[in-house]
Structures are given as C-alpha cells and as structure tokens.
C-alpha cells in the first residue's frame, strides 16, 4: 500500500521538497496540501489548534499525528505524549524530529493504553470516514479514555460548499448520504493513493451522536469559517 503522506513528509524533511500533495475529492475540487504547512510551529497553527493544545492535560495520545507538530509542542511543555499514525513515514519523521513515544498503527487497531487527553486535530474525526461509522469510532475513543479524560477535536461543517438559495438555505444532493462524507484521492510525484473516505461533521450531528453514547459534547470555540473545536468527555 502506497504511503503518499509519509513519502512526501520524508522528502520535505530530507530537503527534497519539489512539490506539494495534490488532492482530488468527490466534491469535484482539485486542491493541494502544502508540505511546509505540515511542519508548522505553534505560532503558525490555527487558533482552534492552539486552543486545543492549551487545553491538553495529563497523558496524551495524538491521533493522526502526521509530522508530530502537536506532539513535539506538548512534549516540550513536559507532557507525556504518544504520537499515533497509520503512516509509516510519518512515524519515522516523528522519531527523527525527537518525539520520544510513537506508534505506527491505525487508530481503530490501537488499544494499548488509556489517556487523559485524546487529540484529533486537523479534522481528525474525519478518520471515521462515514457517518454510519461514527458510533463505533466514538465508542473506540471512549475505550481509550481515563474516567476523567477528554477528547479534543476540530472539524468543519462543509455546508458552505453547496449552492445557497435566496432564503439562505443550501442545495444539498438528496442521494441518501450525509453531505459531509467526502471521498479523496491523494497524488504525489505522479503516484496516487487508493480512494479513501473522510468525514466532515457539523457540530449538531456530533452532539447528537455523543448524546446517544453517554458522552458529553461541549462546543469550545467556533472558528472563522464554519469550523469549530469540541470537547468530549464521559458522563459521570
């Protein structure tokens, strides 16, 4: 299986940066992921990410850690952080950059420990893929939480990407799928990944799913463009 992300991160880290990752989505948009952004420092992070890192406490699992930006920041603050990613290249980069604890594994296959804080940043809830996977995904998060633990996640309500009518409503295709389900393909140096599903989740839908599973769901802060930071915790 191609490790598109890991290959690109390794190239950038070793001074071989010549192009960014291209993305193609079911929303008919071609876009790119600038590699320098994947190595950003705290000051370059969006405010929602900064807020999440400021709220992190105790033992921390950074899920979908990428190049390890969040883990490194928290580690330097003295926290016990484990960086987790399904990309072998990403974990290699984390080790090279000084992350002391890292795991190469998919999130749903990881159950080695429980944590005080689970981080799902850069729309990490997208790993659920489809809305009908959300309950099992949230249950797995619950299984990794200490009794007083928290999940900090950011996501976006992508309703704005659909056509708006004169009354302020949006024309969303009525095909039976949740509008936040997007299929992506990544391309780097003429190699393409297999298609994968990614979930953009509006807060109301997240809150409803959490309530059904006895999870508290708090809106911490809204971003500037349909994005938000949420905190999940176990109901006592």
UniProtKB/TrEMBL annotation:
The keyword Methyltransferase is annotated on this UniProt entry: yes
InterPro entries, A to Z: SAM-dependent_MTases_sf
Coiled coil: none
Source organism of the structure: Flagellimonas aquimarina
Protein name (database record): SAM-dependent methyltransferase
GO molecular function, one term: methyltransferase activity
Keywords for this protein: Methyltransferase, Transferase
CDD domains attached to this UniProt entry: AdoMet_MTases (cd02440)
Superkingdom per UniProt: Bacteria
GO BP terms: methylation
Keyword Ribosomal protein on entry: no
Pfam family, one: Methyltransf_23
């Amino acid at each position: 299986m191609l490790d598109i992300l890991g290959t690109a991160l390794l190239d950038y880290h070793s001074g071989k940066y010549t192009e960014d990752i291209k993305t193609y989505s079911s929303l008919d948009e071609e876009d790119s992921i600038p590699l320098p952004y994947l190595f950003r420092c705290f000051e370059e992070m969006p405010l929602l990410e900064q807020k999440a890192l400021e709220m992190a406490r105790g033992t921390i699992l950074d899920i979908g850690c990428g190049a390890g930006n969040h883990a490194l920041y928290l580690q330097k603050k003295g926290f016990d952080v484990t960086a987790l990613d399904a990309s072998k290249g990403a974990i290699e980069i984390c080790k090279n950059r000084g992350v002391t604890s890292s795991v190469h594994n998919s999130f749903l296959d990881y159950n080695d420990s429980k944590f005080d804080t689970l981080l799902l940043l850069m729309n990490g809830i997208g790993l659920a893929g489809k809305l009908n996977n959300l309950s099992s995904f949230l249950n797995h998060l619950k299984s990794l939480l200490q009794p007083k633990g928290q999940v900090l996640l950011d996501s976006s309500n992508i309703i704005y990407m659909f056509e708006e009518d004169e009354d302020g409503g949006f024309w969303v295709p009525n095909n039976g799928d949740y509008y936040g389900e997007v299929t992506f393909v990544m391309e780097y140096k003429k190699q393409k990944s297999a298609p994968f599903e990614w979930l953009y989740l509006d807060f109301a839908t997240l809150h409803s799913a959490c309530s059904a599973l006895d999870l508290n769901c708090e809106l911490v802060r809204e971003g500037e463009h349909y994005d938000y930071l949420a905190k999940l915790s176990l109901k006592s």
